[in-house]
């Protein structure tokens, strides 16, 4: 997966400052020069980031006046909540683990065979990444359906909507899942083994372990991104110092 362009990273940093309340709705952002110095980039990069944020409806650029934060529209009924990938994964570890335990006491041989087919689709080297991802989704939704409780099934369906439709969540999952295919396949097999044995405890533990490992992978990826950003800014500071002191 390609690295995000610099202006996209800067746009994300500006959004983070807005969400933390540093720049509330209606307030004016600092000028390009001030933001460029604060974020350690050029004014051109800040301008590109602001143009991207205006396109997303987050800010308004008023020529001759400045850049202003727009008020967020009220969430429409049924709209997805704005959650982080970490919040979602923690909830999945609870809800989907219990769904697996419930399914273990109800699953039929035909349903075991169907789940085996979905794992085969995930591991098939000829499958596209999109096809493997869809098999992954169907695997988890099938377990929720087999659990036999419509509320649990609805919750897992909603979880997968958030996983795939919320941009921040989708990006974090894509970054992590792109490189851990073999591990995820082993974990799915362990979940299926618990279900095949009709062992609620084993199915619950395997599903919980699946999300615990995913959560740790997310933490590691986030830490690596933060370190890379620190190195990038340090290099920029070094280059500015050398440029300022060169004679």
If you average the pLDDT, what whole number results? 87
Outline, from the CA principal axes? elongated
Q: What share of residues is helical?
A: over 70%
Give the radius of gyration: 23 Å
The string of secondary-structure elements, in order, is HHHEEHHHHHHH
Instruction: Report the sheet-strand fraction.
Output: under 5%
Report the total helices.
10
Q: Got a strand count?
A: 2
| Helix-strand category | mainly alpha
Strand arrangement, largest sheet?
A: 1-2
Task: Describe this entry's structure for a reader.
The chain is mainly α. 72% of the residues lie in helices and 3% in strands. It is built from 10 helices and 2 strands; from the N terminus they run αααββααααααα. It has a two-stranded antiparallel sheet. The two termini are 41 Å apart. The mean pLDDT is 87.
Chain-wise SSE layout:
Blueprint: H1 6-19, H2 32-39, H3 43-55, E1 59-62, E2 66-69, H4 85-104, H5 109-123, H6 129-146, H7 150-165, H8 167-177, H9 181-196, H10 200-245
Antiparallel strand pairs: 1-2
Helix pairs in contact: 1-3, 2-3, 4-6, 4-7, 4-9, 4-10, 5-6, 5-9, 6-7, 7-8, 8-10, 9-10
């Amino acid at each position: 997966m390609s690295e995000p362009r610099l202006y996209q990273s800067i746009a994300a940093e500006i959004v983070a400052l807005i969400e933390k309340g540093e720049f509330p709705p209606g307030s004016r952002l600092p000028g390009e020069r001030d933001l460029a110095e604060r974020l350690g980039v050029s004014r051109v990069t800040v301008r590109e980031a602001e143009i991207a944020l205006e396109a997303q409806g987050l800010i308004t650029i008023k020529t001759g006046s400045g850049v202003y934060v727009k008020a967020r529209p009220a969430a429409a009924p049924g709209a997805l909540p704005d959650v982080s990938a970490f919040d979602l994964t923690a909830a999945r570890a609870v809800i989907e683990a219990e769904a697996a335990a419930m399914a273990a006491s109800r699953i039929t041989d035909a349903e075991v065979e169907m789940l085996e087919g979905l794992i085969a689709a995930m591991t098939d080297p000829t499958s596209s990444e999109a096809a493997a991802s869809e098999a992954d989704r169907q695997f988890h939704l099938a377990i929720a359906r087999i659990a036999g409780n419509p509320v649990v099934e609805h919750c897992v369906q909603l979880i997968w909507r958030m996983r795939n439709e919320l941009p921040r969540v989708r990006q974090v999952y894509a970054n992590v899942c792109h490189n851990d295919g073999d591990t995820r396949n082993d974990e799915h097999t362990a979940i299926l083994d618990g279900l095949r044995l009709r062992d609620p405890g084993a199915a619950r533990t395997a599903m919980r372990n699946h999300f615990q490992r995913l959560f740790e992978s997310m933490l590691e990826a986030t830490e690596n991104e933060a370190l890379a950003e620190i190195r990038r800014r340090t290099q920029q500071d070094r280059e500015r110092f050398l440029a300022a002191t060169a004679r």
